[in-house]
């Protein structure tokens, strides 16, 4: 596929990459580099092999490989800079492994020296934000920040039942059964169990005995939020493993109503090249979470 751009006065004497990035938002820096290397960009009919300056009325021709636009459209980027990438993971997709969101990203960044690596995971059928590092130094810093609990992970969850306390910090212990791919929660420590800490705040009390919660986890164990909330009597609607089938059927939900919607960089220690992120937040808003949290019309009376 060939796309053509005629340079207007706005981009006179500007760099080629600026024109392309602002005119064709589906093309990112890794893709641009690949196109240059393969000499798939022409200016006034002449193939170029490096970044250059363009002038008013220059004709830029870009030859896009088949499928490249589809890959980029499928990837919902929420934030990106030279060090990190935050994407909005859709439902029914693993973070790592075969046919995962990471594999999709690696195809897009296949010509980069360092392919973006995930710094944490969310469940296959949990939607929302996943943070990836774009270089080795950033990866080391972010993994350490998660370990020190200096990155807050916030989720939105729609649960059945309305908690009596508006806000609570829960501590318990969790055991992962590898064979059954399921976890179990206990109030007391047992052999093989690991400590979990889950905080929730009730954002909305809704009709039909449901509530919208902001959930923050201090420990990132497998299925922690789903299992912990179900254990205290407030299962996430749509959760087929830890919820209740009759409730899920009532609300017409096949997947858990759980979304990783906010990351806060609450750095307390040295952050190196990522110091600029200190105190910043990345959050899903508007239509990106509207369908997940507002589902009253789908409720069966």
Task: Describe the overall structure.
This protein has about 300 residues and is of the alpha+beta class. The chain has three domains: about 1-65, Structural Genomics Hypothetical 15.5 Kd Protein In mrcA-pckA Intergenic Region, Chain A; about 70-150, Pseudouridine synthase (2-Layer Sandwich), CATH 3.30.2350.10; about 150-260 and about 285-300, Pseudouridine synthase, CATH 3.30.2350.10. Helices cover about 20% and strands about 30% of the residues. The strands form three sheets. Strands 7, 8, 9, 10, 11, 12, 13, 14, 15, 16 and 17 form an eleven-stranded mixed beta sheet that branches. A four-stranded antiparallel beta sheet has the order 1-6-3-4, with no helix packed on it. The protein is elongated, with a radius of gyration of 23 Å.
Beta content comes to: 25-35%
> Number of helical runs?
8
- Overall shape: it is elongated
Using only C-alpha atoms, the radius of gyration works out to 23 Å
Name of the CATH architecture of the largest domain: 2-Layer Sandwich
- Looking at this structure, what is the CATH superfamily of the largest domain? Pseudouridine synthase
Number of domains in the coordinates?
3
Uncertain residue segments: 297-301
Order of helices and strands: EEHHEEEEHEEHEEHEEEEEHHEEH
Q: Can you identify the CATH class of the largest domain? A: Alpha Beta
Average predicted local confidence, pLDDT: 89
Query: Mind describing the biggest β-sheet?
Result: 11 strands, mixed
How would you classify the helix and strand content by structural class?
Answer: alpha+beta
Oligomer category: single chain
Indicate the percent of residues in helices: 10-25%
Q: From the 3D structure, determine the CATH topology of the largest domain.
A: Pseudouridine synthase
Ends distance: 50 Å
DSSP, total strands: 17
